[in-house]
Specification:
With about 300 residues, the protein is of the alpha/beta class. The chain folds into 2 domains: about 160 residues, P-loop containing nucleotide triphosphate hydrolases (Rossmann fold, 3-Layer(aba) Sandwich); about 100 residues, no CATH class. About 55% of the residues lie in helices and about 15% in strands. A 5-stranded parallel beta sheet has the order 2-5-8-1-9, sandwiched between helices. A two-stranded antiparallel ribbon has the order 3-4. α11 packs across α15. The longest helix has 20 residues. The radius of gyration is 24 Å and the shape is elongated. Bound molecules: adenosine-5'-diphosphate (ADP) and magnesium ion (MG). The site of magnesium ion has 4 residues, from α3.
């Protein structure tokens, strides 16, 4: 997919994804060695986005299987389109002389099969990115089915038969760690922790979102993010929430977070009652801003 580490790095950045060198190297090695990439870490830290950025960088498509509790194989692999089959039978019946054996074969061909993301990934002529998103939401049986697919690259469907892969996709599994992913899947994957970014990297991410603002604005938000995450909140803000905050500040016409903005910005920064109370404590917000300023200065220094 990529000819060099440097090429991957440049293309990820061009796709709007700021990755650290461990991430870039792990992605590069996974594509080279045809390993599955398992991304684990808090929600909103950029796992899903990384899969899209890799696809964009490789100039290919994403087949995404969004997992949820109770997801079944039909959703993931696909199923026959019964109404289309019925329509076909009715039309044939009207046309008179029918060879029912061949109609039967036709009805169980790919033409009448609504392929789900797993099947579509196998049918791609050119390797795509197969994103199995939030795999921690499925049960063990589903995980076992996936494991079989990842080792054999073929799917056996009753009546349709066995479908062999036309190309081997680059597989990205993500997990928010609600349930532990089993060891067999871990064994065949490279494991990448996707944590909240460093202040310096977060400033770059904010800069991509609000390119017209100053470096001080970008670093200011990164510093605030770091301060908030050090505040032992029940729900620490993710990158995506910091980006919301950046957008909100722009809309309100401010270029930094000041103590006076506390009440207006609280709904964007504290997402549980306990966290709200914490930031509303006397001096709570002011000392948060103080911490944020320290981190901002550090981020600006290391960027210089
Ligand atoms: N490294 C990054 N570079 C650029 N944008 C990022 C990065 N990490 C997170 N984001 C932003 O945060 C948003 C949420 O990330 P997402 O991939 O949905 O998180 P996750 O899948 O881990 O819950 C993305 O849409 C993107 O705007
Ligand atoms: Mg996600």
């Amino acid at each position: 997919m990529f000819s060099s580490l440097q090429q991957l790095e440049e293309r990820l950045r061009a796709s709007g994804y700021i990755a650290d060198s461990i991430t870039t190297t792990t992605v590069f090695l996974s594509t080279r060695l045809h390993k599955t990439l398992l991304l684990e870490g808090p929600a909103g830290s950029g796992k899903t986005q990384l899969a899209y950025a890799v696809a964009d960088a490789a100039n290919t498509t994403v087949e995404r299987l969004q997992c949820y509790e109770g997801i079944n194989e039909e959703k993931a692999i696909g199923k026959f389109d019964e109404s289309l089959q019925r329509l076909c039978v009715e039309l044939r019946a009207k046309s008179g002389d029918v060879d029912w054996a061949s109609v039967r074969t036709e009805l169980h061909s790919q033409d009448f099969f609504n392929a789900g993301p797993l099947m579509r990934a196998l049918l791609c002529e050119k390797p795509c990115v197969l994103l199995v998103d939030e795999l921690d939401k499925v049960d063990q049986a589903f995980e076992a089915m996936l494991l079989e697919l990842l080792s054999e690259w073929r799917l056996s469907i009753p009546k349709l038969g066995t479908v062999e892969a036309r190309s081997i996709p680059f597989v990205v599994l993500t997990s928010n760690e609600e349930r532990r992913i089993g060891d067999p899947l871990r064994r065949r994957s490279f494991y990448l922790r996707v944590e909240h970014p460093t202040a310096e990297r977060e400033a770059e991410i904010v800069a991509l979102r609000t390119p017209d603002s100053s470096p001080e604005f970008h670093a200011g938000l990164a510093g605030l993010a770091k301060a908030l995450r050090g505040w032992s909140l029940e729900k620490a803000p993710s990158v995506s929430e910091i980006l919301d905050l950046a957008d909100a500040l722009k809309i309100l016409g401010h270029d930094q977070v000041t103590p006076e903005l506390r009440d207006v910005l609280l709904p964007l920064m504290a997402k549980t009652e306990a966290d709200r109370k914490k930031l509303l404590l006397r001096d709570g917000f002011a000392s948060l801003i103080y911490d944020a300023q320290q981190y901002t200065r550090e981020a600006l220094r290391s960027a210089a």
